[in-house]
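Worked problem 6 (solution included).
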Amino acid sequence: MSALYLSAPLPFVGQKRMFAKHFIEVIKQYPPGTVFVDLFGGSGLLSHITKHFHPESRVIYNDFDNYRHRINNIERTNRLLSLIRPISDRFERHKPITGESREQIFKLLEQEERENGYIDFITLSSSLMFSMKYKLSIEDMRSEVLYNNVRKSDYAPSPDYLAGLEIESCDYRELFERFKDTPGVVFLVDPPYLSTDVGTYRMYWRLADYLDVLSVLPGHNFIYFTSEKSCIVELCEWMGRHPSLGDPFARCQRREFKATMNYNARYTDIMLFTIPGLPPDNAA
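Solution. The predicted structure is:
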């Protein structure tokens, strides 16, 4: 049996390390041979833990965000951090990196991208920005203040982290369709949280997308993750109390207005209205 990881080897937005022990308690209750499908694989932590405790089971990991590519490049990421560390160490811990030192770091990043064609920007962001703030290009990083949060030690190579998993990379709906009729299947459902930043994910998420995920739950065993910030549980409870409501906006017309709060904060105001003068049943 491979080593058990209780956190992902590399930073990832929304990895479930805080849930690991509770998740283990639940996953161990399923019988040997159960098929587990991790619809939103993310960092692979849920799939890894599941395979560790169910080595005889099929565990399908949907690596839509290509986390395995980051794992395969840990050595390269460590080497780049080793070049950055002497520069960042000129500044106090958690303090801004300024002046020529800042430019030296960007020159290293540009050279790495030019010569090797790959940078793990999420891992780099965790060392050069504050927690949970990530940029996915050199251009985007240039718009931010860099800080000396550089990790002091290398990331451990983790060649066994994804061992034994069946790795897919597709839309979760496609994966669900393939396994929905598998007897006793258990779906691991950890979509990006509603009302949180999903900028590092390879997809755009609207409220309808979060609600669509709920359609895979009825009639199946599942372990579902959400947050009180999303209000999704409260919304579902409200819908359960009003099952005949339907869509109150189905007969409305819509107008939108693009609003700007400041240089990097924009939003869309929406007005929905029934057509004045028409009976409510005919307004459309």
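Discussion: The chain is about 35% helix and 15% strand.
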